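Deviations from the work plan: none for this task. Representative record:
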Amino acid sequence: MRRIAIANQKGGVGKTTTAANLGTCIARLGKRVLLVDMDPQANLSIHMGIAVGRDEPSTYTLMRGENTLEETLRDTMVEGLRIIPSNIDLAGLEVELSTQSEGREKCLARALEGLDEQFDYLFVDCPPSLGLLTLNGMCAVDEIFIPLQTEFFALQGLGRLVETVRRVRSSLNPKVEVTGIIAAMFDVRTSLAREVVQDIKEHFGDRLFETVVRKNVRLAEAPGFGAPVILYDPDCYGSQDYRSLALEVLAMDSKW
Amino acid sequence: MRRIAIANQKGGVGKTTTAANLGTCIARLGKRVLLVDMDPQANLSIHMGIAVGRDEPSTYTLMRGENTLEETLRDTMVEGLRIIPSNIDLAGLEVELSTQSEGREKCLARALEGLDEQFDYLFVDCPPSLGLLTLNGMCAVDEIFIPLQTEFFALQGLGRLVETVRRVRSSLNPKVEVTGIIAAMFDVRTSLAREVVQDIKEHFGDRLFETVVRKNVRLAEAPGFGAPVILYDPDCYGSQDYRSLALEVLAMDSKW
Ligand SMILES: Nc1ncnc2c1ncn2[C@@H]1O[C@H](COP(=O)(O)OP(=O)(O)OP(=O)(O)O)[C@@H](O)[C@H]1O
Ligand SMILES: Nc1ncnc2c1ncn2[C@@H]1O[C@H](COP(=O)(O)OP(=O)(O)OP(=O)(O)O)[C@@H](O)[C@H]1O
Ligand SMILES: [Mg+2]
Ligand SMILES: [Mg+2]
């Protein structure tokens, strides 16, 4: 199973949109995909049309050992795509775990043990911070994809994110590395976007995916219908871009 | 002095852009304005062309009592606008304060005491979370402005933000209330944006500012030049919208 976290502490850069739509397109290409929502805002769960009440099985109860994987896993409207949904309870975990000394970054990794036979791909959607929830995401995977908005602040926080990944690799999870950068929310009309993509290429070279995800209002509308964009509007730019990104991601499989 | 925090735990909705540009426009209308950067990403400081090295006076050293206000205050390129800049050290504060039992939400409020004579307006730029840094922001002000992206997820987290403000008011800061909602990053071409604005009006009525901040690439380019948009491109939509928002904010003064 390929395990990938989608992380960037900068807010609103397309992490959830990427988890929902890339996950869906990979499932449509015949892979068995699991999404894990690690954000207390539960945007990924909502995007997939799933709302979980307080005290129902969720990422929180799974990590606390109150529910098993089987009790927590939910089907989505996409064949071959399942999700571990979250809710606001997860916001309490950060405080609860911070007083625990041992292994607080590995709760998620422990909770997801034994999944290799059931799924081909795991995507973890991280919240906009580098706190304990994102660290748990980074300790449960081997790869990190970073969506970058093609705007000025995009490269600002990147140094810190890459440094955090380096520290996680040296002290908590020796396998984890950044294997993909996604130019997200690309506005074809502005020179700023092209300049930022150029900048990213100079910093990250071959880790930048060829596929650029263009700004497309359909991507912003789809969550309102609780559906991924390829179900909402199959021929729009958003659907084309995430389908092409999914093919690029699969093409990397031979390296894993 | 009017004390206003700009908060929304949803990432990338225009908090920093609003702090930088609304602050600038109000200073241009003759008021003495102080900006406080409460985000370890320091996007507001960078937006105003200021970078603070580790261990230099910053929001972090001010709240820890290692520097005085005078040592921490910095001028900006805008006449009448000063800033307390931040840097990555602030990320450590959340963990350091969480082990302190008393008054950990009031560090910023204590650090800003005695400013009423020097400034007419205070704007605090909050990070994308409802953790200790944002709570400190909410305890140091009387008003909260919420920038809302006019997209589907906008209303998702709003209930939680309003609930957090209510809890802060009942247990930590009896004066604080949400007094302004800003429809930010409005895309005139999409019906989604108009629907969301309609939704916001139904929820918040007269607290929604008349001025809508339109999507405008100049607002995304300006931070790259370390300048507010009215200095970078005075006649663009971004400048027009923030100037008109500043007039609306001043018009509320009689209530304060
Ligand atoms: N390519 C795109 N074109 C247009 N809108 C987009 C695109 N990608 C994402 N969006 C919209 O931008 C907003 C932010 O995207 P999203 O919620 O995926 O970001 P995020 O990084 O997960 O945010 P957070 O940091 O809050 O978790 C959403 O309203 C989403 O619908
Ligand atoms: N009206 C607008 N039109 C176009 N771009 C905008 C507009 N407002 C903000 N932006 C751009 O959108 C991105 C997000 O804005 P900003 O950084 O102000 O949001 P934020 O809420 O402060 O983010 P964070 O949650 O990470 O602190 C930035 O790249 C900014 O330049
Ligand atoms: Mg998200
Ligand atoms: Mg910001």
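The first strand of chain B starts at residue 2 and ends at 6.
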